[in-house]
């Protein structure tokens, strides 16, 4: 017979109580049981999430779990039958609400806050309580809530991270964990992770080195994976690689949550990143999508070059930004009637975003039939030390910048460069607020009937110019786009509503296509395809109101079109590993999407046919080990 400790151990396993201690140390279970009213009293030790994946095993979930677990909780939307059968009747007030009524209450609640950061905190709290309601609320109100869950508010959330941190939303892997990265990945309760967004916090938006406070970025990105492309949230894992910070302000901040040390660099840093990549593949498989986000410029390029052909990875700051900017340029062709190859480009900024955009512009020109050397000659790049040239005496030129350096006399000032080379397109990715001065904008207008100006730096405080400055200094003739949202501008009795070149138009759809097809590697062609799909979705009415992008309310359809195009390309080029190849790519993708609506909390039941009657024989005594049993 079982001893009492073992009996309690088995009972607690059945009830879901003290899952770990029951398996590891029966004596500790005895002690815990002795201090508890019943063997199944376990509120203090249950996991935050009671289920993993999106398939609930009814025998493993108790009634109270449906209230405690945000994946199962429906608030007051539980029906009377669900409340009674699940054993939660009486734990909630008598009111029964529909999801639509809850959504209306959410809208009232979030709108009562005036500060964006308070709205951000309300949404975070909603996600902690009711996952389906949170994502449905984002899905239905993406135009209003995108600036809250992502730029620009997420930047402020990162800056205040130590103050607003509540509970884990991803994994923090520190350099002190070298040799044990795989062990940390095993601590994440979800076994079916398909997408990881990882940052080391060195270059968060235009805010610089925020260290461990940068966790808000991967959390926000992956929330958009679900809200915009329908990727299931349990398949997404935010990761913060904490190797320290070089910000003395953070090192001296009593609220800072990361390692208080200067950044680890060099071989030690590279080996740590290598270990992380290998551990991801070991834990989740070779096809796991790894999105690099907000790494420092040099590291971002190095890792993209190093891993792009050996892992399923991309860098959104380089490739996602490039795709959305090039999509805007494709759309602008309908206004200017000018091809890429017929334009001259000046880039203010020569970091990862600018290099990424410039490189994809070159690819677009080659796609138009121009050779690469000619395409490169159309692009002029400016960094903090002036024009990238082979002759300048100050500043260094990285490997990725070299192909854009010109054999001309150096110039230091952006105004002089714009005046001399007369660009048709001026793109800012410098995080230098106000660098597009009225004089520069006026020069662009003097040299072009419809000058193209993209002020892509974010958050808003880092933009090269505002929409109002761009329109007023070009007599309303500018073709304008920005990286952060700006309000409408009225000039010459016409109101312009500039579009935001938000990466969210691109990366969710790319991720959905890559994950669904099990693509091993992500070639650059996928981002040019994404840019074309986005540009093709822009309607004439969008261009008439001053936007090179479709309204954010249509971003779900944009993501689906991009995912469908990526899926077709993956199968055509032999990159997919999910077989058989679906005939209708769009319908196949839809079958894999997250359900934003509530599902029944009741176990599925079904009827059996009535069993046929058989007359049984008389029961006879049986012998067992020499004894007669009656």
TrEMBL record:
<dbReference type="GO" id="GO:0046872">
    <property type="term" value="F:metal ion binding"/>
</dbReference>
<dbReference type="InterPro" id="IPR015884">
    <property type="entry name" value="Malic_enzyme_CS"/>
</dbReference>
<feature type="binding site">
    <location>
        <position position="293"/>
    </location>
    <ligand>
        <name>a divalent metal cation</name>
    </ligand>
</feature>
<dbReference type="GO" id="GO:0051287">
    <property type="term" value="F:NAD binding"/>
</dbReference>
<dbReference type="GO" id="GO:0005739">
    <property type="term" value="C:mitochondrion"/>
</dbReference>
<dbReference type="InterPro" id="IPR012301">
    <property type="entry name" value="Malic_N_dom"/>
</dbReference>
<dbReference type="Pfam" id="PF00390">
    <property type="entry name" value="malic"/>
</dbReference>
<feature type="binding site">
    <location>
        <position position="317"/>
    </location>
    <ligand>
        <name>a divalent metal cation</name>
    </ligand>
</feature>
<dbReference type="Pfam" id="PF03949">
    <property type="entry name" value="Malic_M"/>
</dbReference>
<feature type="binding site">
    <location>
        <position position="294"/>
    </location>
    <ligand>
        <name>a divalent metal cation</name>
    </ligand>
</feature>
<feature type="domain" description="Malic enzyme N-terminal">
    <location>
        <begin position="127"/>
        <end position="308"/>
    </location>
</feature>
<keyword id="KW-0560">Oxidoreductase</keyword>
<feature type="binding site">
    <location>
        <position position="458"/>
    </location>
    <ligand>
        <name>(S)-malate</name>
    </ligand>
</feature>
<feature type="binding site">
    <location>
        <position position="203"/>
    </location>
    <ligand>
        <name>(S)-malate</name>
    </ligand>
</feature>
<dbReference type="InterPro" id="IPR046346">
    <property type="entry name" value="Aminoacid_DH-like_N_sf"/>
</dbReference>
<comment type="similarity">
    <text>Belongs to the malic enzymes family.</text>
</comment>
<feature type="binding site">
    <location>
        <position position="502"/>
    </location>
    <ligand>
        <name>(S)-malate</name>
    </ligand>
</feature>
<dbReference type="GO" id="GO:0004473">
    <property type="term" value="F:malate dehydrogenase (decarboxylating) (NADP+) activity"/>
</dbReference>
<keyword id="KW-0479">Metal-binding</keyword>
<feature type="active site" description="Proton acceptor">
    <location>
        <position position="221"/>
    </location>
</feature>
<feature type="active site" description="Proton donor">
    <location>
        <position position="150"/>
    </location>
</feature>
<protein>
    <recommendedName>
        <fullName>Malic enzyme</fullName>
    </recommendedName>
</protein>
<dbReference type="GO" id="GO:0006108">
    <property type="term" value="P:malate metabolic process"/>
</dbReference>
<dbReference type="InterPro" id="IPR037062">
    <property type="entry name" value="Malic_N_dom_sf"/>
</dbReference>
<dbReference type="InterPro" id="IPR001891">
    <property type="entry name" value="Malic_OxRdtase"/>
</dbReference>
<dbReference type="InterPro" id="IPR012302">
    <property type="entry name" value="Malic_NAD-bd"/>
</dbReference>
<dbReference type="InterPro" id="IPR036291">
    <property type="entry name" value="NAD(P)-bd_dom_sf"/>
</dbReference>
<feature type="domain" description="Malic enzyme NAD-binding">
    <location>
        <begin position="318"/>
        <end position="571"/>
    </location>
</feature>
């Amino acid at each position: 017979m079982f001893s009492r400790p073992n009996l309690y151990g088995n009972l607690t396993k059945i009830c879901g109580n003290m899952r770990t201690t029951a398996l590891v140390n029966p004596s500790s279970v005895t002690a815990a049981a002795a201090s508890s009213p019943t063997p199944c009293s376990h509120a203090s030790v249950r996991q935050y999430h009671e289920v993993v994946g999106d398939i609930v095993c009814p025998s493993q979930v108790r009634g109270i779990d449906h209230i405690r677990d945000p994946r199962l909780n429906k608030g007051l939307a539980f029906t009377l039958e669900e409340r009674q059968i699940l054993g939660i009747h009486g734990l909630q007030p008598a009111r029964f609400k529909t999801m639509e009524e809850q959504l209306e209450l959410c809208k009232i609640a979030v709108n009562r806050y005036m500060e964006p950061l308070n709205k951000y905190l309300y949404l975070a709290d909603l996600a902690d309580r009711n996952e389906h309601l949170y994502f449905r609320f984002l899905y239905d109100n993406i135009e209003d809530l995108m600036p809250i869950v992502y730029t620009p508010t997420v930047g402020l959330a990162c800056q205040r991270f130590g103050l607003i941190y509540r509970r884990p939303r991803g994994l923090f892997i520190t350099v002190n964990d070298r040799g044990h990265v795989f062990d940390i990945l095993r601590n994440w309760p979800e076994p079916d992770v398909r997408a990881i967004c990882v940052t080391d916090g060195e270059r968060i938006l235009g805010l610089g080195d925020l260290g461990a406070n940068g966790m808000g970025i991967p959390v926000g990105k992956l929330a958009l994976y679900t809200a915009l492309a329908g990727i299931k949230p349990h398949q997404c894992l935010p990761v913060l690689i904490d190797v320290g910070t070089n910000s003395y302000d953070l090192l001296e901040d009593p609220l800072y949550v990361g390692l208080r040390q200067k950044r680890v660099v060099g071989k030690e840093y590279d080996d740590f990143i290598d270990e992380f990549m290998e551990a991801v593949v070991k834990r989740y498989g070779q096809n796991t999508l790894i999105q690099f986000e907000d790494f420092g410029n040099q590291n971002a390029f190095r890792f993209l070059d190093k891993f792009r052909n050996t892992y399923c990875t991309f860098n959104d700051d380089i490739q996602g930004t490039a795709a959305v900017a090039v999509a805007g340029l494709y759309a602008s062709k309908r206004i200017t009637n000018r091809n890429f190859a017929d334009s001259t480009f000046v880039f203010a900024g020569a970091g990862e975003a600018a290099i990424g955009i410039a490189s994809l512009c070159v690819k677009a020109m080659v796609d138009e039939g121009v050779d690469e050397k000619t395409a490169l000659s159309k692009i002029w790049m400016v960094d903090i030390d002036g024009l990238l040239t082979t002759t300048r005496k100050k500043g260094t030129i990285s490997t990725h910048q070299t192909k854009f350096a010109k054999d001309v006399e150096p110039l230091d000032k952006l105004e002089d460069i714009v005046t001399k080379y007369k660009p048709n397109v001026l793109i800012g990715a410098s995080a230098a607020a106000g660098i597009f001065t009225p004089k520069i904008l006026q020069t662009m207008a003097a040299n072009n009937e419809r000058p193209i100006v993209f002020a892509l730096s974010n958050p808003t405080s880092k933009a090269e110019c505002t929409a109002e400055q761009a329109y007023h200094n070009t007599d309303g003739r500018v073709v304008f786009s920005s990286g952060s949202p700006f309000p409408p501008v009225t000039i010459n009795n016409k109101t312009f509503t500039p579009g935001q070149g938000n990466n969210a138009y691109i990366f969710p759809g790319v991720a959905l296509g890559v994950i669904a097809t099990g693509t091993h590697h992500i070639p650059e062609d996928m981002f040019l395809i994404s840019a074309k799909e986005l540009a093709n979705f822009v309607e004439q009415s969008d261009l008439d109101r001053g936007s090179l992008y479709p309204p954010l309310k249509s971003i779900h359809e944009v993501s689906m079109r991009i995912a469908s195009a990526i899926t077709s390309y993956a199968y055509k080029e032999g990159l997919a590993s999910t077989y058989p190849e679906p005939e209708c790519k769009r319908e196949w993708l839809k079958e894999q999407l997250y359900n934003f609506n509530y599902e029944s909390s009741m176990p599925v039941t079904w009827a059996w046919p009535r069993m046929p009657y058989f007359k049984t024989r008389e029961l006879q005594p049986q012998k067992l080990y020499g004894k007669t049993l009656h």
